[in-house]
């Protein structure tokens, strides 16, 4: 038996997230997910029933530049051949960047040391047509200095209960954020084209994340940027552990799982 | 009566090109075009029957960063209000960048002094998922030096008969190309992300273009880049005026109408 690791890029727009849906709900069978597509294609290629384990769920509409997943197989196909076969069977919005043989003990989630996410806000109410599915349009003024100051309070090891989704079932809620950077730009690059729209780019890196944690952090920082809450509120929210005190959940389409570190 | 000029950005992927289809064909009514969408929305806003004139047709799948169109109306709506109303009625893949009142004699096509197009080739057989609709994937080696040399022969005023579409009905076929640049890049920028794929970017600028002329030029230059024809063939093709001697038509999705100059 061999263990194979995949690195996957996807556009989450058309999908109900990463995770295969359990078939208890009558709706679930119509809910196409990245995992279900990949498992089906891998099963076809290997003629085995493949179960794929991902490094983390991404919600519906969230994109990935480097999602990681692994599976075990009897197949003797080389990683390169498997990569080509899988790419040729996948729709154009899912692309396999790398296939690699790994130790039988490799687990995409438990072996991960850190993960990074990117989030994009575009400073207009009408996004460029090419970037419509990849950003959160906010035209209102944002006090970026205040947002950066608030972000500073989140760096480090904290109990992030206040920033998790109501349905999140993680046993421990202590996580470490090592980076939360916020940058502004005047022109948003798209291929060789500089589209004239201001944008804000977040990068957040940590050992692990609770469900909706990144989007709840971004949503709260935006409310601080709009002056709806003071910078200091971020410390109170953290201390309270109360989801109701934090801000809104930023929309899925601006979020990219950038990389999983091992 | 006022004359209004629009500058329009669109993602051509879902459309049958710019031009409204004549309703003689039974298929035509199902063929949604950018022009038909805009005319319908403008007619709703002004409560008049609006006829829009564009600076040039773009074919199905071709994109625009700055298409120009104009119409005449009795409406007294300000350009800013009209822009907002039109944007709110248009689908997210059509965006109005600017509305401006112009002279009654302004004609988007006849008043234009020059036009520029961009074309993107990506050097892989599996394009990044986010850029799939915006480039021509070519994995084979391309001799960029040879392509640049060949491009040099096209700059200037020539009879471009050999590069026009078979159905093109333009009366004169002499056109002037003022720029035909070819650049290579190692990383293709997408928002704040550098996607690790080599790419080639063409920029072509001229006083006017025959139907398919840009795509036929790109297709021929690619065949030269692949070594299928010598650099010198470009002069013979030009001189012959024979479409059959030129190369293939490059796919629509890599092409962007960049700007119309007045």
Q: Helix and strand succession of chain A? A: EHEEHEEEHEEEEEHHE
Structural class of chain A: alpha+beta
Described by its quaternary structure, the protein is homodimer
By DSSP, the count of extended strands of chain A is 12
Strand composition percent of chain A: 25-35%
The greatest interface between two protein chains, and residues involved on each side, is: A-B, 34 and 34 residues
Our Rg estimate of chain A from Cα atoms comes to: 19 Å
Distance between the termini of chain A: 22 Å
User: Level of helix content of chain A?
Assistant: 10-25%
- Uncertain regions spanning at least 5 consecutive residues of chain A: none
Largest sheet of chain A: 10 strands, mixed
Tally of contiguous helical segments of chain A: 5
Nearest-integer average pLDDT of chain A: 94
**Tertiary shape of chain A:** globular
What does this structure look like?
The structure is a homodimer of 262-residue chains. Chain A has 5 helices and 12 strands. Chain A is of the alpha+beta class and 262 residues long. In chain A, strands 1, 2, 3, 4, 5, 6, 7, 8, 11 and 12 form a 10-stranded mixed beta sheet that branches. The longest helix of chain A has 13 residues, at 34-46. The two termini of chain A are 22 Å apart. The model of chain A has no long low-confidence stretch (mean pLDDT 94). The interface between A and B is medium-sized, with 34 and 34 residues.
